[in-house]
Amino acid sequence: MIDFGFDKIALIGAVALIVIGPEKLPRVARTVGTLLGKARRYVADVKAEVNRSIELEELQKMKSQFESAARDVETSVQSELSAANAAFGDVTRDLTSGIDGADGIAFDDGSSSGAPLAAPVPQYKRPDKNWRLKRSALPHWYKQRSGVRTHAQSGAARVARFRPPALKK
Fold it and tell me: Protein biosynthesis: present as a keyword of the record (predicted)?
């Protein structure tokens, strides 16, 4: 912005006093001050808008870089997964061809039939427990020793229980 020194401001004030006059000078100074304030706020708003647009562009660039990096990682993971699946498929084919007896491998019982090696897996049966009952994490004896309440009690019953003996009726 334009740099004004004290001597230049004094010269402008003296010329304004002569040209405008002492009666109208305070009103003109207030008007000039408000106009300068509005101009400064407008310039600050424009700067802020430019900064926001620059930051938005930077964020969009970072977003695109992050998305491209994520796509690269995804493709590399997919390729590694497909290679692992192919290797697993080869191993399982080799093992199943050996189990079928194609290679003449003898089994434990001495027969080379294609019978299954293991019994079928039994179906899952849920244990006979009442799952709706809440199980306590602390043992009951520990709660009693440390003074933890295990039963709900109304406020009036609690007051009556802990009332000093001299005041009980």
Answer: no
